[in-house]
Automatic annotation (TrEMBL):
<feature type="transmembrane region" description="Helical">
    <location>
        <begin position="323"/>
        <end position="347"/>
    </location>
</feature>
<dbReference type="InterPro" id="IPR011701">
    <property type="entry name" value="MFS"/>
</dbReference>
<feature type="transmembrane region" description="Helical">
    <location>
        <begin position="182"/>
        <end position="202"/>
    </location>
</feature>
<feature type="transmembrane region" description="Helical">
    <location>
        <begin position="150"/>
        <end position="170"/>
    </location>
</feature>
<feature type="domain" description="Major facilitator superfamily (MFS) profile">
    <location>
        <begin position="27"/>
        <end position="414"/>
    </location>
</feature>
<dbReference type="InterPro" id="IPR020846">
    <property type="entry name" value="MFS_dom"/>
</dbReference>
<protein>
    <submittedName>
        <fullName>MFS transporter</fullName>
    </submittedName>
</protein>
<keyword id="KW-0472">Membrane</keyword>
<feature type="transmembrane region" description="Helical">
    <location>
        <begin position="359"/>
        <end position="381"/>
    </location>
</feature>
<feature type="transmembrane region" description="Helical">
    <location>
        <begin position="123"/>
        <end position="143"/>
    </location>
</feature>
<keyword id="KW-1133">Transmembrane helix</keyword>
<keyword id="KW-0812">Transmembrane</keyword>
<feature type="transmembrane region" description="Helical">
    <location>
        <begin position="298"/>
        <end position="317"/>
    </location>
</feature>
<feature type="transmembrane region" description="Helical">
    <location>
        <begin position="62"/>
        <end position="82"/>
    </location>
</feature>
<dbReference type="InterPro" id="IPR036259">
    <property type="entry name" value="MFS_trans_sf"/>
</dbReference>
<feature type="transmembrane region" description="Helical">
    <location>
        <begin position="271"/>
        <end position="291"/>
    </location>
</feature>
<feature type="transmembrane region" description="Helical">
    <location>
        <begin position="234"/>
        <end position="251"/>
    </location>
</feature>
C-alpha cells in the first residue's frame, strides 16, 4: 500500500514530457513540420490577393475564389489519402502530401494566366488535404492517452509558425521578388523535412497492430465503412467542422487585405499579422492543456466565443497600431488557437478502422467553409454597401454562435481511451 501511494504521488509530480519517448517526439516533429510547411505554402496567397487581382486584371472578389478553389477539393483529397493511410500506413501518405503541396505552391508562383493559377490551386488543395489530418492521427495513435490532446495541440502550433513564416516572407521576400517569389520559399525546408520523415520517423504502431489482409471488396474500403457504420457522427462532426472553419477564415483570410485597405505599409501589416500568428502558436499550445483540464467541448466553445469578440474589437481599432498589436495576439490566441482542439475532437470520436479516413474527410469538409468565407464576406459587404470591418466582425461572431449550438451534439471524450472508442 505504501509503495502504491509513493508511486501515485510520483505520477502526480512527474512532468508530462517525461512520459514521451524519442520515437513519439519524432512522430510529432514530422507531423508538425508538414503542418508548418502547409501553412506557409497556403497562407502566402492571403497577403497577395490584391497583387494577383491586378496582375491578371480580375476583381478582388474573383481573386478571393482562389481560396475556395484550394479548399473546395480538399475533402476529396482528405478522404482518398485517409483511406490510403488506413490501408498502407501513415508514413508514406504523409511524405506524398508534403511533396504534393510543395510542388503546387511552386506552380502557383510560375502560373502565366489566372486560369492556370486557379488550376494549380486546385492541385495544391487536393494534395495539402491530409497535412493536418494524417498528422493528428499519427500523434493520437503514438502518444499516451493522458497527453493526447497536448500532443495534438502542439502539432497545431505548426499552423501558427507557418503563418509567421508567411508574414515574414511578405516583409522580406515580397519587396524584392514580388508576389510570385512568395510561393518558392518552402522548397528547401520541404526537402530537409522529407529526408527526416524517410529516415527517422517510425510507422504508427497502432496501425501495424490493426493491419489486415489486402482489401478485396469495395464494401471493406475504410471510406465506405465510415459512411455505412457511422452516418450520424459524419453528419454532426462534418457540420461542426464546416461552421468552425467558416468562423475563423474571415479573420485569417481577409485581415491582410483589410490592413492594406487602410493604406498600411508592408512592415506594419507584417507586424500585426505576426502578432496574430504568435497568438495562434500560444493558443494552439495552450488549447491541449485547457482541453485536458476542463473538457473538449467547454474548452473549444469558450475559446471560440472569446476569440470572436477580440476579432470584432481588432477590426474596429486596427488603424491604431499600438492597440491592434495586442488585439491581434488575443484574437489569434482564442479564435484560431481553439482549432488546436479540433483534431482531438475528431480523432477521439472515430474508431481506428476509419480514423484516418474520417479525420481526412471531416476536417477537409470543414475547410470548404473556410474557403467560402472570404468570398461570401466580400460579396455580402458589396451587396449591402457596408465596410469590410463590419463584414469580418459580423461573420466571425455569427459563426461562433452557430458553432456553440452544434457543439451540443458532440459527445465529450475527455478521459476516454482510444481502445474504448474503437469498440463504440
Amino acid at each position: 500500500m505504501k509503495t502504491r501511494a509513493i508511486s501515485s504521488e510520483t505520477d502526480k509530480t512527474r512532468r508530462w514530457y517525461h512520459d514521451i519517448t524519442w520515437a513519439q517526439w519524432k512522430v510529432l516533429i514530422a507531423a508538425w513540420g508538414v503542418w508548418v510547411m502547409d501553412a506557409v505554402d497556403f497562407l502566402a496567397i492571403t497577403f497577395v490577393l490584391r497583387d494577383i487581382a491586378t496582375t491578371f486584371n480580375v476583381t478582388l472578389d474573383t481573386a478571393s475564389l482562389l481560396l475556395l478553389a484550394t479548399y473546395g477539393v480538399r475533402w476529396i483529397g482528405g478522404l482518398l489519402f485517409g483511406s490510403l493511410s488506413d490501408r498502407i500506413g501513415r508514413k508514406i501518405p504523409l511524405l506524398i502530401t508534403l511533396t504534393w503541396f510543395t510542388v503546387g505552391a511552386a506552380l502557383t508562383g510560375a502560373a502565366p494566366t489566372f486560369a492556370l493559377l486557379a488550376a494549380f490551386r486546385l492541385f495544391l488543395g487536393f494534395g495539402m488535404a491530409p497535412g493536418f489530418s494524417l498528422g493528428a492521427t499519427m500523434v493520437a495513435e503514438a502518444w499516451p492517452e493522458k497527453h493526447r490532446a497536448i500532443g495534438i495541440g502542439i502539432l497545431d502550433t505548426g499552423w501558427g509558425l507557418g503563418a509567421i513564416g508567411a508574414a515574414m516572407a511578405y516583409n522580406w521576400v515580397y519587396p524584392a521578388f514580388g508576389w510570385r517569389g512568395m510561393f518558392f520559399i518552402g522548397i528547401p525546408p520541404a526537402i530537409l523535412l522529407g529526408l527526416f520523415i524517410v529516415f527517422m520517423v517510425p510507422e504508427a504502431q497502432a496501425w501495424k497492430e490493426a493491419k489486415r489482409e489486402p482489401i478485396m471488396s469495395w464494401r471493406d474500403n475504410p471510406a465506405v465503412v465510415l459512411f455505412a457504420r457511422y452516418p450520424r457522427r459524419v453528419a454532426y462532426l462534418g457540420l461542426l467542422m464546416l461552421v468552425l472553419c467558416f468562423g475563423s477564415w474571415p479573420f485569417q483570410g481577409l485581415l491582410p487585405t483589410y490592413l492594406k485597405s487602410l493604406q498600411m505599409a508592408p512592415g506594419a501589416i507584417s507586424w500585426i499579422t505576426s502578432a496574430s500568428a504568435i497568438g495562434q502558436v500560444c493558443g494552439f499550445f495552450a488549447s491541449g492543456f485547457i482541453a485536458e483540464r476542463i473538457g473538449r467541448r467547454l474548452a473549444l466553445g469558450g475559446m471560440l466565443a472569446i476569440g470572436s469578440l477580440f476579432v470584432a474589437a481588432l477590426v474596429f481599432s486596427a488603424s491604431s497600431f499600438g492597440i491592434a498589436l495586442p488585439l491581434a495576439f488575443l484574437a489569434g490566441f482564442f479564435l484560431v488557437g481553439s482549432s488546436g482542439i479540433w483534431g482531438t475532437v475528431l480523432t477521439e470520436n472515430l474508431p481506428r478502422d476509419v480514423r484516418a479516413s474520417g479525420v481526412g474527410l471531416l476536417y477537409n469538409v470543414g475547410v470548404i467553409g473556410g474557403g467560402m468565407a472570404p468570398f461570401i464576406v466580400l460579396s455580402t459587404i458589396h451587396r449591402v454597401n457596408t465596410t469590410l470591418a463590419i463584414g469580418i466582425a459580423a461573420f466571425s461572431v455569427g459563426a461562433a454562435v452557430a458553432a456553440l449550438i452544434v457543439l451540443k451534439f458532440v459527445r465529450e471524450t475527455k478521459g476516454l481511451r482510444l481502445q474504448d472508442i474503437d469498440k463504440s
